[in-house]
Amino acid sequence: MSPQIVVVPASTKAGRETIRQLLESEGSTPQVRGIYRDPSKAPVEFTQHPRFEAKQGDVSSGTGLDFGSADAVFYIPPPTFDGTDQGEWAARCAEHVKHAIREAPSVKRLLLLSAMGAQHDHGIGLLCLNHISDKILRDAAQDVIMVRPGFFQEFFGTALEMAKADPPVVYSWSTPIDHKIPMVSLKDIAKACTKVLLADSESVKQMPHDFKIVGPRSYSSRDLKDAVEQVTGKAVELQLVERDQLAGYVRQETPEPHVGEIVEFLEACLPGGVIDGEAELGENTVVGEIELVDALRGLHATA
Ligand SMILES: NC(=O)c1ccc[n+]([C@@H]2O[C@H](COP(=O)([O-])OP(=O)(O)OC[C@H]3O[C@@H](n4cnc5c(N)ncnc54)[C@H](OP(=O)(O)O)[C@@H]3O)[C@@H](O)[C@H]2O)c1
């Protein structure tokens, strides 16, 4: 029988790419249910697919979380930036997901998107979202598998936008210039997630239930500049945002109540920070194939 898989929230970056790969998977024909706050946001490439359905649901209110008849659920904790305390939000959403799994006895597997460094209970800023979600959901299904990516390479797509300035400039908070941080493409993450979601119940037991995922290597600000120059074909100036400038930099794009948690998160990625300490590749690490320059090239091509 074809496995039935729920992805929630389906509009998240990792959710969207995993749905795409589930629907493209060869040899397996999963039925995929994507839960959206607004189902009209489901991409046409999905809604036209015979094995996909879009449903309305909201993890913060708990409405519409119908996991009935599903075998596996992929939950991606969404961050909030509306002034709500991130920890309270994480707990509320995770409790709703846990309740919905309890109401659907067919669900035997929960794949939970977490993050590198989210095991720590302090010094991780925004990642308290994942720390709390992990804690609440660690026993929510027969098999709970946590995947911990490094930074999404596509997150640095903003550098392509900055490079449109005249003269082209890229700001980067990763200092010093050659400090490398772990990054991974959404395609590599989705590939690993698809493998977990489609594995049969015996194979899943053999898999690590808590694993990191990183790209083929880590990247520095200098690497980011080089990648942007390769993709755009233009020379760009690199402007480093030093530690004492982080709050002002983050404040440009982030609502005030969330500035502190983002700054703490970025500091955790800098030398000596909690997440920097996670960069060692351990036994349970999946190493992806896609280079930063190729992830940026993909974004540039679709922009
Ligand atoms: N970004 C990274 O580099 C990175 C790295 C490692 C781990 N992670 C983890 O990945 C997760 C996603 O982070 P992200 O920043 O990349 O966010 P994201 O995937 O862009 O997800 C945000 C989306 O979730 C949807 N959403 C928000 N609240 C919802 C609700 N109550 N019910 C249903 N859908 C809701 C919203 O879509 P609509 O507005 O369309 O409803 C929103 O656009 C986080 O847990 C994060 O820690 C991220």
TrEMBL record:
<dbReference type="InterPro" id="IPR036291">
    <property type="entry name" value="NAD(P)-bd_dom_sf"/>
</dbReference>
<dbReference type="InterPro" id="IPR051604">
    <property type="entry name" value="Ergot_Alk_Oxidoreductase"/>
</dbReference>
<protein>
    <submittedName>
        <fullName>NAD(P)-binding protein</fullName>
    </submittedName>
</protein>
<dbReference type="Pfam" id="PF13460">
    <property type="entry name" value="NAD_binding_10"/>
</dbReference>
<dbReference type="InterPro" id="IPR016040">
    <property type="entry name" value="NAD(P)-bd_dom"/>
</dbReference>
<feature type="domain" description="NAD(P)-binding">
    <location>
        <begin position="10"/>
        <end position="197"/>
    </location>
</feature>
